[in-house]
## 1
Amino acid sequence: MKEAMHYSALEGGKVRCGLCPHGCTIADGKRGICGVRENRAGRLFSLVYGRYSSAHPDPIEKKPLYHFHPGSTALSFGTLGCNLRCLHCQNWEISQSRDADFGELGELRAADIGEWAGRTGSEGVAWTYNEPTIWHEFALEGSIEARKRGLYTVYVTNGYISEAPLREIGARLDAANVDVKAFTEKFYKEVSGARLQPVLDACKLYRELRVHLELTYLIIPTKNDSAGEMERFCRWVVKELGPDVPVHFSRFHPDYRLGDVGPTPVKKVVEAWEIGRRAGLEYVYGGNVPRGDYDNTLCPGCGSLLIERSGFHAEVTGLRDGRCQNCGTAVPVIGARPGRL
Ligand code: SF4
């Protein structure tokens, strides 16, 4: 157990956590909404500091990050809990468990991450699988240690984090994929138990902090898949974040408490891809579309194929020194090396 950061003491032994926009007021002996921060006698503690539920060397494409060290491996860690309550959560066993035995989790020291990464051939570390925000104390320390060893650091996040902790971790992050779950407050309230606006604010702050940013939008039939909503989202990205921010549209599969909603039709992903391109996004990706260029990186200037992907493999074909080989358009892909990766 480690005393939490970003909280203040209140009267009557209560505390207020300031890590995420929920701002939970927590009575003695109770936990916040995320289930992993507990008030013990007027002090807030992290129950997951140095405790992991999952650890794997993953392709960076799996996060997904397509414009960041293509073909590299990121040693990926997750713990328990989440500050959102998404009815469709695909990792609900670890994110929504509220009666877990934290003592059964693996133990990890931040100082050991570099050696572990070296053993697995990893070039970086990713905080993922569950929401890294609620693991702040350890993810921060682990990111500092990882950077000391020359590793890159990545967040795969729902973006539900307050400004001060985001500035703190953002200074230690190289890249983030923010999962924007929909573009209405109604969806966030009814499906995720949260609010949209703080997520949008976090996306803007990631850009301000110069953390490489990509976005994911999981298309859920009847919930967030109207052409109008997806178009408003894409236009917002172009205007507020920039047309060069990659956007990944992905397909929903029935899970957890949304088992009665069918999977996303392939044609819906294609529609979203077209909406994104029409809205002015330069890099739009569509996951699990069997044919076409929906997973490849194309030059926004001339349409040439720059990075070809198959599964989680990438081949950098038409990109040299950050420019399209055919027309010279600058294409921001950090750490791209020519060849099959
Ligand atoms: S991090 Fe957890 S305890 Fe803190 S405000 Fe968010 S949900 Fe509440």
## 2
Amino acid sequence: MQVNFSGRALRYTEEEIQVVVEAMRTADPLTQGRFQNAFQEGFCAFNGAAHAFAMMNGTAALEVAAQLCFFKEGDEVIIPSHTFTSSAYPFARYGTKLVWADIDPATRVITAESIAPLITPRTKLIIVVHLYGYVADMPAIMALAQKHGILVLEDACQAIGAELDGVKAGNFGDFGVFSFHSHKNLTTLGEGGMLTVKDERYAALIPMLRHNGHRAFPAGPEGRPDYWIPAMGDVDFPELDGQRLWPNNYCIGEVECALGLKQLERVERINAEKRTRALAFIDALHDYPELEFHRVDSLRHNYHLLPARMRGTALRRDDFIRRMFYEYGVKCVVQYCPLNRYPLYQKLGFGKANCPNGDDFYDHMISFPFQHCLTPEEFEHMLASTRAVLDAQRSGKAHGQ
Ligand SMILES: Cc1ncc(COP(=O)(O)O)c(C=O)c1O
């Protein structure tokens, strides 16, 4: 049996497929229409956000959030080194300094304690990534940020529906960003994203930032002679307090929005099913302390992914992954190379980080295949294979023996 680290998270239900078919038949226009409005409203109702804007992916939402920060050269952005690249690069294009924060080794997310020593008078933004689907300690981080007057962005791309103290991920900070990419617990046909904001002034600018600087003509005292005069719609720079932003086209299609709205009905069930499965896997391996999981039996973790740290050397971790794949057909992977190790960040001068926990975790981590559509047979095979490989490692049997 093969267990792939699948490129897709879910199988769509027949009802979801019907919603797509119906939207294909009826949507007019096919972008920027009633399904987008309904998805945004549905997302606010689901998540508790004040304002939500659907976009073509999470990275586009991050790009727009970065624009709204109105960075000046030399502003500093605190961000975990252990995250996906698009948590970071949209913020680096403005000449900002990326300041790498370390993760807590147990929870694998940054904390108020790891952030506090990095704050300077130039700190403009803290980016908190709820990596793997676990909500960081936002009350403590918000208290710290508010004390210093710093903006907070939650990269909740992996954490849809996860919550802390009854507040859903993305709802603590100034900005919340979500991804509906193929791997995610809610996915709008492979690409999709959402930006949530609290501030009305940001909310007023986002439609223009998303859609080419388009806006309706202001209703003048005389009105317009005809709907096409002087043009169908107006085009301008989105502006805040005299500061200009360049517009983009980051729109998402109507069919994706129709599907996203429908999937909001199911995402909490998907999260619960993944959590139940994660806990079953972790508990079944209780007698194997060489694998260190993050066990969270609450809504705070949606188990988008199922990572573990392997005790011992990095070579032992690689041996584990090799055996799982070549002997049992189970494809584990290694995720989230500390960003300071990539050429892109090194070329920007951000190649050094004081993040020993993030480095250690990456060098010892194993991410198990954990797509929602894993079958019970695949799950059992993965569990049995994990036990078998750990037993073989304990007995000192070499790979292939
Ligand atoms: C933590 C994190 N941030 C940002 C992104 C970017 O989202 P997208 O792929 O929708 O652009 C992703 C996912 O891909 C992610 O996992």
